[in-house]
Amino acid sequence: MRLTIPEEEVLSSGHLACPGCGATLAMRLALKALGRDTIVVIPACCWSTIDGVFPNSALGVPVMHIAFEAAAIAASGIKAGLIAKGNTHTQVMAWAGDGGTFDIGIQALSGAAERNDDIIYVCYDNEAYQNTGIQRSSATPYGAWTTTTPRKHPKQEPKKNIVDIMSAHRIPYIATATIAYPEDFVRKFKKAREIKGTRFIHIFSPCPPGWKMKEQDTVKVSRIAVKSCVFPLFEIEDGKLKINIKPSRRQDVRDYLKLQGRFSHLKEEDIKRIQKEIDKNWQNLLKREEAHEG
């Protein structure tokens, strides 16, 4: 198989990420795909710390750190300024966590998507407000422990479906990605680079401290998430959905849950409920793909 991952390292060493940080591995691949002609907008999130203490930066490209809620509109403004100066080639990428996307920043993201502003918006989803103490977000899955959903009172609500929300905006490109499948990851970012309008990429981003997992299991957990259909890999281009990886034999969700201490309190009925929801979502995804193929 011909490898398609560029060799150049844009992200440098010296960043402040925790060992095994999925968000950092994801940024490395994203910048390899987009290249140095990129401006990154980062709201308050783990990456506003990971990047380094001012005036230092590990990213190797221009970076703007902005308020929690403003990732999408700041990226849109930068892109508008570049276009006004005649620069139509520089990519502008907003890079936000689930708190700054699913919750605090969704108003600006929705506005940018409605206008179809020419930006790439990336949500690295570690399923909680990890940088401020592991508080639950609307991306936190059912049954998960966080400091605000402790073991005796774990989260009872399902995870918000951010992809369907973005799909309802009818933007030209949406994709899911994970570092466990780097070729797929890089291909999607390269594709997004060539498309005009709002592009949304949802990245599965394990957090060893927040998920109470071993730091060496980040890629393993990411791969099992795909094989168990906890986090399917697909893309929606001009409204048409295509599943990129269909597991030949799906793994039981228990293989995914047992690697993470945040789920260690779950009872058998909780696990069965989670599996049932995953099965339903996967079947719905298959039906949507079939409908688009017809």
Give the CA-based shape.
globular
Tell me what portion of residues adopts beta-strand conformation: 5-15%
The CATH architecture = 3-Layer(aba) Sandwich
State the secondary-structure class.
Answer: alpha/beta
Q: Could you name the CATH homologous superfamily?
A: Thiamin diphosphate (ThDP)-binding fold, Pyr/PP domains
Parts with pLDDT < 50 across at least 5 consecutive residues? none
**CATH hierarchy, class:** Alpha Beta
Q: How many separate domains? A: 1
**Remind me, CATH topology?**
Rossmann fold
Could you state the order of secondary-structure elements as H and E?
Answer: HEHEHEHHEHEHEHHEEHH
Write up what this structure looks like.
- The structure is a single chain.
- The chain has 294 residues and is α/β, with parallel strands linked by helices.
- It has one domain (22-293): Rossmann fold.
- The chain contains 11 helices and 8 strands.
- An 8-stranded mixed β-sheet has the order 2-1-3-4-6-5-7-8, with helices on both faces.
- α1 crosses α7.
- The longest helix has 26 residues, at 268-293.
- It is globular and about 60 Å long.
State the gist of this model.
This protein has 294 residues and is an alpha/beta fold.
Question: Features of this protein?
Answer:
eight-stranded mixed β-sheet, alpha/beta, single chain, 11 helices, 8 strands, Rossmann fold, 294 residues
What topology emerges from the helices and strands here?
Elements: H1 22-34, E1 38-42, H2 46-50, E2 63-65, H3 71-84, E3 91-97, H4 99-103, H5 106-115, E4 120-125, H6 162-167, E5 173-178, H7 182-194, E6 199-204, H8 208-211, H9 218-227, E7 234-237, E8 240-243, H10 253-257, H11 268-293
Parallel strand pairs: 1-2, 1-3, 3-4, 4-6, 5-6
Antiparallel strand pairs: 5-7, 7-8
Helix pairs in contact: 1-7, 3-5
